[in-house]
Write a structure and sequence with these properties.
mainly alpha, 2 helices, globular
Length: 61
């Protein structure tokens, strides 16, 4: 997991699961290229990578 996520991701997940207790969350780490492939194949709902690949939209969260 990138270091930048370690500071805010646990608190964000805790807040989300408190608000939406019926939603399950699975975390998986992968190299950028593999994560991009998984996002394009729609195997991941959300991806955090250190670069933006082609044909990927950017959304504010």
């Amino acid at each position: 997991m990138p270091v930048c996520l370690e500071s805010f991701l646990p608190a964000l997940i805790a807040l989300f699961t408190k608000r939406y207790p019926k939603v399950s969350i699975e975390l998986e780490t992968a190299p950028n290229t593999q994560a991009l492939k998984m996002i394009r194949a729609r195997r991941f709902d959300i991806g955090v990578v250190s670069m933006i690949g082609q044909n990927l939209a950017r959304f504010a969260i």
